[in-house]
Amino acid sequence: MTENSSCCTPEGSCHSGSAAEAQAGEVQANEVTTTYKVSGMTCGHCEGAVSSEISEIPGVRSVKAEATTGLVTVVSAAPLDEEAVRAAVDEAGYELAGQAA
User: Fold this and answer.
1) What is the pTM of this model?
2) Angstrom distances, CA of residue 74 to CA of 10, 11, 82
């Protein structure tokens, strides 16, 4: 169980509190980092929903979603199937526009 069970802090800012997000800075040598563009995210709750769904994909090590840019950075053990990422983003209620340039 993660330490944060709510998406918002006592100060009123949103935060996903996901374990995968907490590990975002710990990239191993043979892991793959891919950045995707996701439309529709507007706040920390959105970031948490997208991060949570993508974190469920086998092989995902960490996820960092940024509502302000619409970018989602995923670190995984191997390249991910884009359709699996698309399905996860769709499940969260957002739209995957593809890999960021």
Assistant:
1) 0.72
2) 28, 28, 12
What domain range includes position 58?
A: 31-99
The pair phi, psi for residue 11, each rounded to 5°, is -75, -10
Question: Is 40 in contact with 95 (CB distance < 8 Å)?
Answer: yes
Give me the CATH number covering residue 42.
3.30.70.100
Structure tokens at 23: 């590990």
Among residues 90, 96, 93, which one has the least CA distance to residue 72? 96
Number of separate domains in the chain: 1
Give the model confidence (pLDDT) of 41-85 as tens digits. 999 999 999 999 999 999 999 999 999 999 999 999 999 999 999
